[in-house]
Amino acid sequence: MTILTKAPHLRQDFAASIVVFLVALPLCVGVAVASGVPAELGLVTGIVGGIVAGLLPGSSLQVSGPAAGLTVLVFEAVREHGLPALGVIVLAAGLLQLAMGALKLGRWFRAISVSVVEGMLAGIGLVIIAGQLYAAAGLKAPAAGLDKITGLPEAAAKAAGSSSSLASLAIGAGTIAVIVLWQRLPRKMRAVPGALAAVVLATVATLVLSLPVATVEVKGLLDAVQLPGLGSFGELASLSVIGTVVAFTLIASAESLFSAAAVDRLHDGPRTQYDKELMAQGAGNTVCGLLGALPMTAVIVRSSANVRAGARTKASRVLHGVWLLLFAALLPGALALIPLPALAGILVHAGWKLVPLRGIVSLWREHRGEALILVVTALAIVSVNMFEGVLIGLALSVGKAAWEASHIRLEVIDKGAGPVQAYLSGNATFLRLPKILDSLEALPQDRPIELDLSGLHHLDHACRTALESWVERHSTAGTEPVRVMTPTP
């Protein structure tokens, strides 16, 4: 019995794994550099995402690794707590994901408002674009997201007066141009991913023209890996570190499970088992934490490339992890040739794709409340930080849902003679209490009133108390008492 008989889809999976490897390689390195950690740690996370998470059940065609969506959060964590604490944070987040998967909480992530998730990604995209524009010019970016944006005019003026900055910007802009134009080339040429082609061309141009641009610093795979020391676990006593762990967990889980839903729409194979996928992500992040690497999440770019390349089973994503491992072990010196502005260009393009400009316009036409939540979430992430921005978005989403759920209608029928009839229907909650009282207090004081509450689906304590007080006030001496018809239990 041949190998192909035992694994009938091996040929398709092998070819797909090569494509995913070529897509993942520049992204792994670029995300690591943008996160302020050694480039090799991005490869470590890609390897773990392929081999560890790839072998586990959940979503058969989804590919995991370091994601641009977590770049901002990782950079802030490393800046505030140091690189040694990163492993502990990622480890704790992985264990928390495992616990959530075991408790079958994975499906609940589908209840998160899509507007909040898209707003989160848009905010991250804006911060990535602003930060990587500095990197493309060979300049140091400010720490805060808002400072990155407001400082761009000054940075542009500084870059215009520096030949090295202009050369660096040329490489970054050329990288973006190649990625964009690559999609218009014949299909055979597009077999090589645009990001990889852009990095190779940028590297060749830098070497041939001897351009004065910075390149990736290489430490070596074993030197870059830092196992968390016992002293690092003491960081978990800090509230800020615990907040970072929660942020890593929620954002990585939401991004992974939303990506899984998107990947399911691209193929007709087995559907994602959300709780098992959450545990697979948790297992991968636990291993990444033990190795002191970047956090791992499912990445839609790699996953869609995997599906479109013809992958049929999880073998493709496992093999892509093997190719990353072989590259990191056998060709580590190749990383030192990659110019940093080329990686910045890749991330600027990736950040731009996170901002749903067309989606915001169409959403504003159909659901203005959802569009507002998206925009406010994005702006909050830029102006405050990732964790608090997401919390603001979630609070707005919950508030909007509560407001819409408290829909109530008051119909007043006055036939000119006899009692005035007031019908309340819907959900009477404290959110609509001012509207209810304004309408009832506008009823004539010298006429008998019939208040029909039989159409209410819900009457909360605040509204019940307020209605009873209004009935008591209206039923004064000399006025016929208000007749109240309550809902039938």
Write the layout of secondary structure elements.
Blueprint: H1 3-6, H2 10-34, H3 39-55, E1 64-65, H4 71-81, H5 83-102, H6 114-136, H7 145-150, H8 152-160, H9 163-182, H10 194-209, H11 221-224, H12 239-264, H13 274-290, E2 297-298, H14 300-308, H15 315-330, H16 340-354, H17 357-366, H18 368-383, H19 386-405, E3 408-413, E4 420-428, H20 433-441, E5 449-459, H21 461-474, E6 483-485
Parallel strand pairs: 4-5, 5-6
Antiparallel strand pairs: 1-2, 3-4
Helix pairs in contact: 2-3, 2-10, 2-14, 2-15, 2-16, 3-13, 3-15, 4-5, 5-12, 5-13, 6-16, 6-18, 6-19, 9-10, 9-16, 12-13, 12-14, 17-18, 18-19, 20-21
Question: Describe it for me?
Answer:
The protein has 489 residues and is of the alpha/beta class. It has two domains: 7-399, no CATH class; 408-485, Transcription Regulator spoIIAA, CATH 3.30.750.24. The chain has 21 helices and six strands. Strands 3-4-5-6 form a four-stranded mixed β-sheet, covered by helices on one side. It has a two-stranded antiparallel ribbon with strand order 1-2. α21 (461-474) links the parallel β5 and β6 (483-485). The longest helix has 26 residues, at 239-264. It is elongated and about 100 Å long. The N and C termini lie far apart (70 Å). Residues 1-6 have low confidence and may be disordered.
Could you write a compact summary of the structure shown?
The protein is an alpha/beta fold.
